[in-house]
Amino acid sequence: MRTVATALLWCVATVATFVGIGAGWTATHVQSESGFVDLVSRVGDDRQVQRAAADTAGEAFADRTGLPGTLHDRIADGVRDGVLRLTDSPDWNDAWAETARSAHQRLYSEPTPTNVRADISPLVDLALDEVSAKLPVDLPRPGELLVTLSDENPTDFVEATSRAATVAVVAVGTAVVAALLALAVSRRRGATLTALGLGAVLAAAAWWVLGHLALPRLVEDRADATTEAGRHLRDELTDRIVASLDVTLLWVALGGAVLVVLGLVSRARRS
Q1: 3-class DSSP state for residue 44?
Q2: Euclidean distance between CA atoms 233 and 223, whole angstroms
Q3: Is 57:85 a contact under the CB 8 Å cutoff?
């Protein structure tokens, strides 16, 4: 009976660890505004994303001015070129982070939006003074310049990720309690500790498979990007998400390995 109880508690601890990994990463890097901005800020270093963002900023601002043909094109090209010239400066990093922050705030605002949009006015502001100096017209700052990154309704995504922090706390608490109970009822605690460590490694391995195989396909199917900038951002962000998740999984796997070693040492001492 104690063996069955130990096995059941091991299963609970392993499943709870699996859930806790996903929920904890989501709470830290998606639900959290600062974590989201930090994650997306890394994408801003990609040259393709920079070019696509500069093109989008130029076209969107030129459209906002309502000016005809030649002036419209000069404004779009000027903003694009000005933004690209500043992508290696701290001003670009600040503007990109502010754009990411606006996207997160809109995504988690009430009521939940029906699409994914971001305010790219910080990017336009980088080049506006330079562009205005070369044109015979005065170009006011846009104030707010929203562009649609995806028409996919994010309601389900927002609802799920909004619960991530709570789910993570419950899952981690469940894993810890189940592990302690498994050790308490087990006849061979060294073996149980080893099994718990293997369970943590197994949970990390399962997330590694999901992250590298299932996540890119899921994002491609669900994230219907409407602009070139949106597509580049989606693809690059997916790569950064997988890389960030891998770091978390490495720490979980190392923790599991430590438990395995402790369990083996405990068994060796008892034998």
Answers
A1: coil
A2: 11
A3: no
CB atoms within 10 A of CB 35: 17
pLDDT in tens, 188-223: 888 899 999 999 999 999 999 999 888 877 766 665
Give the torsion sign (CA, 9, 11, 14, 17).
negative
Q: How would you classify residue 220: left for phi > 0, otherwise alpha for psi between -120 and 50, otherwise beta?
A: alpha
Contact 85/54 with Cβ under 8 angstroms? no
Query: Looking at residue 140, what is its pLDDT?
Result: 81
How is 189-240 classified by DSSP, letter by letter?
Answer: HHHHHHHHHHHHHHHHHHHHHIIIIIHHHHHHHH--B-SHHHHHHHHHHHHH
Continuous H helices in the chain = 2-26, 33-43, 47-65, 69-85, 90-107, 121-133, 155-162, 164-185, 189-209, 215-222, 228-270
